[in-house]
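Consider the following assembly input.
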Amino acid sequence: MSAIEKFSALIIPSVILIVALLILFSKKDYFSSFLSGAKDGAKSAINLFPTLCALIVGVSIFSASGASDFLAQLLAPVCELLHIPADIFPLIITRPLSGSASIATFEEILSKCGVDSYEGLCASLIMASSDTVIYVISVYFSSSGIKKTSYALPCALFVSTFCVLLSCIIARMFF
Amino acid sequence: MLGKCFGVICVFSIIFGVFSGNIDEISLAIINGASKSVSLVISLIGIMALWNGVLNVLKEAGIIEKLSRLLKPILKHIFPWSFKNNVATEEITACISANMLGIANAATPLAIRAINKMNENEKRTKASPDMITLAILGCCSFNLVPTTIIAIRSSLGASITYALIVPVWVCSGVCCALGIILSRILGKLHERY
């Protein structure tokens, strides 16, 4: 386990090291390409803000009103059957729909259950290893004139449901 | 679409709150939620600026092309039709590499271009198996370094941050494999009937 942790901790520093070496030893001006990329990154983070503001307020209301606990209680038997914590249920709904909505629910789960809790780790794995299925499929196909997506959506939704179950299993195995 | 989600959540929760007597908590949650979104975005600005800058350097240094070349022998088996007819192979490999590096805003236009090219000669309205495999791989997001998740976790004071990377690889790797296998099987069945 500690070997995996050490290896994981090395990944980001080594990417930065490669970039630093490129900037130092290349004739091309890689530092200015870093700057222009960073500018775009900051811009897209700021563009995220208005949506995120609305959605985090929405999710906070949902949680504070007791509605989310009520829903979690209703779904508890189903979740128990599948061995997934009921608290991550809002994330299972929002993850396929929208990136910013899932960030808002993700944040809510982390602050409610604790970042390093079992629920928090499950949610992190789901966030990192699945994507906004419905958004991706509609964007990929709609611009190329494909009207019938055939088995794409059911198959993708099946895989992302499987991803939820697997995330919970992996969270139990690794931590 | 998002507007409707927001509307439904708010109306449902506020009515629920009135009946369950949680209206004080709700008014507090509205104010706290708004300020929480600011601190979240501030931590995201830092990591997204840094990582996007890093990825831009890697892109201009030709790392995506190198990764594409490494991936090609594997992708040949995943997209048999495209590689046999030599259609859109460059776009497919570049798209998958961009997805792996986490450059979503590069991956999406590449995927659209790949699907357009696959459709150029056929002008079909129904998605082909290779197109669906590409879309499903886009949904699984095999991401080598999940920076956004790490940033959100560490901004909330997590002690498990980097250690998450390997479990994420296992999880998304298995999901991608399942997606590819399912897509191939369903593709074969659809061709037959």
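Residues 23-60 of chain B form the longest helix (38 residues). Ask yourself how this observation constrains the way the partners meet.
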